[in-house]
Specification:
Blueprint (H helix, E strand, L loop, with lengths): L8 H4 L5 H7 L1 H8 L1 H18 L1 H4 L40 H37 L1 H15 L3 H16 L5 H31 L3 H8 L4 H9 L4 H24 L11 H9 L8 H27 L6
Helix pairs in contact: 4-6, 4-14, 6-7, 6-9, 6-12, 6-13, 6-14, 7-9, 8-9, 9-12, 10-11, 12-13, 12-14, 13-14
Membrane topology: Multi-pass membrane protein
Organism: Microvirga brassicacearum
InterPro entries: BP-dependent_transpt_permease, MetI-like, MetI-like_sf, OppC_N
């Protein structure tokens, strides 16, 4: 009889890594089937890399006054007869290269968006866990506050919080403080969606047998909520966070366009659009057009990823 090769039981019983499971799973298969999602992911990745590598890709630092020359102000794009190198997309009224300003503005817009989503997700998940697990008066208070906030548009809440904070701290804030105020304003505008979603999931999960077993062995409520319930509600939270990232970027751009966001010395995409809007009817269309196109493309790409992720993580739609 020929020798039969034996497989080490320890090797055969070893579970595949999470990376292998991901590429073998339904989510990756759904991603590969959707050409539109792949284009959106590629575009989003390009925006993120452009923001991260702005210092290497930009012809100039638009935040450094020493690199700006008023003689180069309002130059049209390079393909125009009056365009000049290296200003591919032209310059604004201060002589800033539009491409450089967009890359650095992307960095600020995405930073505000990520921090705002992180803050709102942390606050909403915490309140949702407490409301769903504890119930009673805690649930009533948190949900009534959420119901009241839902009656107001998110941008109005952000404007109100931004105005109150600036009135307390003073109108002349530096760029760092202004960024922090924007993050708090946006975060307090979007926490309700996380809280309501997590609360509903917690109320379903806490009646299951594994939660009862965790209570029987004496685990404290905090450990049960964080170690056992929270991992089971990450799917809906991830979808909300992806979609809210686009909403946070739009909210920051709206606040900056209205003059309550980032200053002109450290412009985000919304600030660049506000600056360019002043010169739109004088013929310098490129000052507002290219930042507007960049903002629209970024938000559209993120929204498409959020829609795909919502469908991919919903077993009823597979």
């Amino acid at each position: 009889m020929s020798d039969v090769s034996r497989v080490d039981p320890a090797v055969s019983s070893r579970s595949p890594s999470w990376l292998v499971r991901f590429f073998d799973g339904d989510v990756w298969a759904s991603f590969k089937r959707s050409k539109l999602t792949m284009v959106a992911a590629t575009l989003t990745l390009m925006f993120f890399l452009g923001a991260l590598l702005a210092g290497f890709l930009s012809p100039q630092d638009p935040f450094d006054p020493a690199q700006l020359e008023l003689m180069n102000s309002r130059l049209p794009p390079l393909w125009n007869a009056e365009g000049q190198s290296p200003f591919l997309l032209g310059t604004d009224e201060q002589g800033r290269d539009i491409l450089s300003a967009i890359l650095y503005g992307l960095r600020i817009s995405l930073l505000v968006g990520f921090l705002g989503v992180a803050f709102s997700a942390t606050l909403g998940i915490t309140l949702g866990l407490l409301a769903g697990y504890l119930g009673g008066i805690t649930d009533t208070i948190i949900m009534r506050i959420a119901d009241v906030q839902l009656t107001f548009p998110a941008i109005l809440i952000a404007l109100l919080i931004d105005g109150v904070v600036k009135a307390v701290l003073g109108g002349n804030l530096d760029a760092g403080t202004t960024l922090s105020v924007l993050v708090v304003s946006i975060g307090l505008s979007f926490w309700v969606q996380y809280a309501r979603t997590v609360r509903g999931s917690v109320m379903v999960e806490k009646s299951k047998d594994y939660i009862a077993a965790a209570r029987l062995i004496g685990l404290p409520p905090t450990a049960i909520m964080i170690k056992h319930i929270l991992p089971n509600v990450t799917g809906p939270v991830l979808v909300i966070a992806t979609i809210n990232l686009a909403l946070a970027v739009i909210t920051e751009a709206t606040l900056s366009f209205l003059g309550t966001g980032m200053p002109e010395t450290m412009p985000s995409l919304g600030t660049l659009i506000r600056i360019g809007n002043n010169y739109l009817f004088s013929g310098e269309w490129w000052i507002v057009a290219f930042p507007g196109i960049a903002l629209a493309a970024l938000v559209l790409a993120i929204n498409l990823l959020g829609d795909w992720l919502r469908d991919a993580l919903n077993p009823k739609l597979r």
